[in-house]
Design goal:
Strand order of the largest sheet: 3-7-8-9-6-5-4
CATH topology of the largest domain: Chorismate lyase
Number of helices: 9
Largest sheet: 7 strands, antiparallel
CATH superfamily of the largest domain: Chorismate lyase-like
Distance between the termini: 36 Å
């Protein structure tokens, strides 16, 4: 009987991971329009999340990965080059490849969803208390992330979400890359990432995040707190499976409603 295992937090071998997780479906789809190296990269992102490799174990060698995934070593090298350029892995010639020490918080879609879906999994019902859609000029941060010109207006979604009683929990602002084609006619009442996939064929793959604390300030009225009340500020850069920018998102969470937990284990000496 095969037990269910999580990618993060479980110490099981690469061979067991490959046999249990992928025997149910093809490892690599050679008929897919998605390039082979991108498919390999997706598998490697899951692999480096495993507890064994986070603790410092060497990743499988190129030849082993190539044989098990049914691709060339050059394809493996393309995928690992991408991860190395992102600072996710470190390669030493004649020694091996390891997961790099994390300098920031990186999450994949195995670990995050839209806020609505996340709350549903916890049995909490949330609703849109306010929703606004508009085309706006954007900050330098967003222009640089999207690689758009300074005078380009971008679709912005603002959502105040809370309990059915009307008590606010979090305020979100999202900007969408114009390449996607999202308009004000989109159904923003459904979970965001489900909507992007179903209506626009955009599959979000990973995000890079920054988390900090700050005072509610001008958002105090929306969140129904004092201006000096502490909120959790979360900045998210979201990418599709081709590693193209999809969404820039910021969230302001009431600190009396949320605790952000991170499970950290001591590395090997």
């Amino acid at each position: 009987m095969i037990q269910t295992k999580k990618f993060c937090g479980s110490d099981f071998s690469f061979k067991l991971y490959m046999s249990e997780h992928f025997n149910k479906r093809k490892l690599i789809d050679h008929k897919s329009k998605l390039p082979l190296h991108v498919q390999v990269e997706e598998h490697l992102r899951k692999l480096i999340c495993m507890d064994k490799y986070l603790k410092g174990a060497f990743l499988p060698k190129e030849v082993e990965l190539a044989n098990r995934l049914g691709v060339s070593r050059n394809t493996i090298r393309q995928a690992t080059n991408k991860l190395e350029n992102e600072g996710l892995i470190v390669r030493k010639k004649g020694v091996g490849t390891r997961v790099a020490e994390k300098k920031g918080l990186m999450t994949g879609l195995d670990h995050w969803y839209s806020f609505t879906q996340e709350m549903q999994e916890k049995g909490i019902v949330v609703t849109n208390l306010q929703l606004r859609i508009e085309w706006v000029p954007v900050s330098e941060t967003i222009r640089n992330f999207f690689h758009v010109e300074a005078d380009r207006k971008i679709l912005k979604l603002s959502k105040l979400k809370g309990e059915e009683s009307g008590e606010p929990m979090v305020y979100f602002e999202s900007w969408f890359h114009p390449r996607i084609g999202v308009t004000e006619k989109a159904n923003f009442d459904q979970p965001l990432y489900s909507m992007l996939e179903e209506q626009y064929g955009v599959v979000v793959h990973r995000s890079s995040e920054n988390i900090s604390a700050r005072a509610a300030g001008t958002l105090s009225r929306k969140l129904k707190v004092d201006g000096n009340f502490p909120v959790l500020f979360r900045e998210r850069f979201v990418y599709d499976i081709g590693d193209r920018p999809v969404e820039y998102n910021v969230g302001y969470y009431r600190s009396d409603k949320f605790t952000y937990s991170i499970d950290i284990k001591k590395g090997s000496l």
